[in-house]
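Feature request disguised as a bug: please show the residue count (317) next to Deoxyribose-phosphate aldolase in the output. Example input:
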Amino acid sequence: MPPTAPPAALADVTASDAALRRYLHGLPGVDAVGLDARAAVLGTRSIKTTAKAEAIDLAISMIDLTTLEGADTPGKVRSLCAKGVRPDPGDPGVPHVAAICVYPDMAAIAKDALAGSPVRVASVATAFPAGRAARPVKLADTRDAVAAGADEVDMVIDRGAFLSGRYLQVFEEIAAVREAAGPAHLKVILENGELSTYDNIRRASWLAMLAGADFIKTSTGKVSVNATLPNTLLMLEAVRDFRAATGRQVGVKPAGGIRTTKDAIKYLVLVNETAGADWLSPDWFRLGASSLLNDLLMQRQKLATGRYSGPDYVTVD
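Example output, currently without the count:
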């Protein structure tokens, strides 16, 4: 367990770079072998019939349906929004997704397309995915996204600063983005694939939460290593322990490489067994994905009818 302290004491932790470094490096080291083994065991769990049907619907409701490509067009975004609201037009019982995730210049298009629906607009910001921009540019990017209608902002941390040990710089930037985002929820992307070690992932998770993150997110989906069961397990442990220390609950979003129903169910098992049922909600757990929804719809129909649909049953995103 990480050291616990009341919120007032945690404020002292961020008073200086030295204090923040002492605190983050005072977190217990990660047992990498044990973490990998536990993730592997949980990844073998299977659920059947009614429980599987419920898990599929829960996973659909947790998806941040994402398009983050240079070739994105208003038409593609509107189509994705329509799919997010009614994933299966032939079955009104299919839940809507949690959010549509786009670049800031598409946030207004998504907001208009989703008007009157409960689906949220999520926008990446802060010079996503590399985050290589001056802070004023990152803050302007965030304000522009919120002004365009983003309900949620997915920011990237400065991995170069973090890996250089400039923790207070990273903390202050997250806090500044948190302020610039105003009423929007803030998801802080750690980019685990670039943090190199499990210890760094734990430290970055705590750093983001101390700075005001509403969610911590594994990755941008733009590097070779994105969401994995072990690094998501580690982040779930972090949010669980952070709530025990501060009383504040923070969500988790794995993103990148989650493509099948089997993958999604593994992550739901991970949530239930690590953080607990309190996190089994779109309010506290998201799945960042672009193609996962199609497989969930196919598996859902297979459970309902006993057979797989033809190749044209789901739309091509």
